[in-house]
Specification:
With about 140 residues, this protein is an alpha+beta fold. It has helices at about 15-25, 35-55, 90, 110-115; strands spanning about 1-10, 65-70, 75-80, 120-125, 130-135.
Length: about 140
Amino acid sequence: MHNEMEVRFLSLSGNEALARAVAVSFAAQMNPGIEELSDIRTAVSEAVTNAIIHGYNQDRDRVVTMQMEIEDELLTVIVKDEGCGIGDVALARKPFYTSKPELERSGMGFSVMEAFMDSVDVQSALGCGTTVTMRKRIRHAD
């Protein structure tokens, strides 16, 4: 089976819930288990929250793009922003690192994504934005 979709939404914290709902609705056609849906929901939540808080500094007029693709048993989720970018991706991926300590962020976003998805790739450039590509094999696919 092959399917794909794209959704764009403003960088509003309330749209993080929308992104989660869209992601699990799209993935549902793969007949995942409850645990797999929960994993996808959690990883998408972290990626979108990072785009809003870190990429756009909560600028409500910017746009986050989420693309999803199903190819047989493989689900790919791509979350993109065109925000400030990450200067040191390796540092940003370390547990407990946060660029916003004043907001009491835990610094676990990338670690959470990695724990719930099979792979996480982060591409970023200062002043150009960040693209997070997450993949998960759905074992319950038809």
